[in-house]
Write a structure and sequence with these properties.
Glutaredoxin; 9 strands; two-stranded antiparallel sheet; antioxidant; disulfide bond; peroxidase; 160 residues; 34% helix
Length: 160
C-alpha cells in the first residue's frame, strides 16, 4: 500500500517506535503487542479542552478496554514532564508518550489542521501489529473512544 502523504491505513503494519513515557521510561510499540491490542491515539496538546476531554473519555473507559484485552497509549509532542503533570492532574491510568519533534506522528502520517495544529487520529493495532481501524476527527471526540472499543471487542480472543 503506498504510504505517501496518506499515512498509515487499515491493513498496514503499524510502524514500530520507541518513545519516553510520562515516567521517563522508554516504551517500544512492539513490546506492547502480542498479548493485547493497542489503541494508539495521537492528540494535539496536553491541557487543551478537546485533548483533556478525549483523555478523560479514555480514562473513563480504561477498565472496559483492559477487560477487552487492549492497552490505550496517547501520543503528543508535549514533554515527559508536561505529560506527567497532565496524567496526574486528570488521573490518567494509561501511558502517554512524548513525541517531541513529531517524528512518530510523521511516520504515521497524522495530518495537521490548517498546517499548524497537530491532528487527532486513533489507531487500533491488533496483536500482530496490523492496523485494524483508523479514526480521524478533531471535533467528534467521543467517537474516538466508542469506535476503538467496538473494534477492540471484535478482536478479543475467543475463550473456551
Amino acid at each position: 500500500m503506498a504510504r505517501g502523504t496518506r499515512g498509515i491505513g487499515v491493513g498496514d503494519t503499524a510502524p514500530d517506535f520507541t518513545l519516553p513515557a510520562q515516567s521517563g521510561s522508554p516504551v517500544r510499540l512492539r513490546d506492547r503487542l502480542g498479548e493485547r491490542v493497542v489503541v494508539l491515539y495521537f492528540y494535539p496538546k496536553d491541557d487543551t479542552p478537546g485533548c483533556t476531554a478525549e483523555a478523560c473519555a479514555f480514562r473513563d473507559s480504561h477498565e472496559v478496554f483492559a477487560e477487552a484485552g487492549a492497552e490505550v497509549i496517547g501520543i503528543s509532542s508535549d514533554s515527559v514532564d508536561r505529560h506527567a503533570a497532565f496524567a496526574g492532574r486528570h488521573g490518567l491510568p494509561f501511558t502517554l508518550l512524548s513525541d517531541e519533534g513529531g517524528a512518530v506522528r510523521k511516520r504515521y502520517g497524522v495530518p495537521s489542521v490548517l498546517g499548524l495544529l497537530p491532528g487527532r487520529v486513533t489507531y487500533v493495532i491488533d496483536r500482530q501489529g496490523t492496523v485494524r481501524h483508523v479514526f480521524n476527527s478533531m471535533t467528534v471526540i467521543d467517537k474516538h473512544v466508542k469506535e476503538a472499543l467496538e473494534v477492540v471487542r471484535g478482536l478479543a480472543p475467543v475463550e473456551d
